[in-house]
Amino acid sequence: MIKKSKKKWNLDYSFLEKKGYKMFASKLNLNSEKSAKAFKVFFNNLRKEASETKQASYLLVKYLKEGKLSKKEEKQLKLQFYDVLKIMGVGIPFFMIPGASVLVPFLLKLSTKLGVDIIPTSFKKDED
Length: 128
Hints:
It is a single chain. By secondary structure, the protein is mainly alpha-helical. It has a domain at 44-122. It has five helices and two strands, in the order E-E-H-H-H-H-H. The protein has helices at residues 14-18, 22-30, 32-66, 71-96, 100-114, and strands at 2-5, 8-11. It has a two-stranded antiparallel ribbon with strand order 1-2. Strand 1 and strand 2 (8-11) form a beta hairpin. The longest helix is centred in the middle third of the chain and has 35 residues, at 32-66. The protein starts with a strand and ends in a 14-residue tail after the last helix.
């Protein structure tokens, strides 16, 4: 589905057309560079989040075996636990509830206005 060539991604959206999402596939094809970049960023962030969750699982096992963690390890475990809860709170309804894909952007905007952080750290832009 993804063909790599000279640092550019060429995505084939024909699988979406076959599943009945012709309009969506045509929009993605019209904006192929932007959509490819968005998919690349999303999957890189997802990979990073998975790696952080794996590291947190090692810390949890260490805590269960030894009964203690350093302050830094404890903070890392807490942050990752919060990220997992955020993913469950925003990500799971996105796939489970019909029409949630329309509501998620509004939910993100509302949470920002209210000062509530619902985006996992891997999906935030670096402020550097």
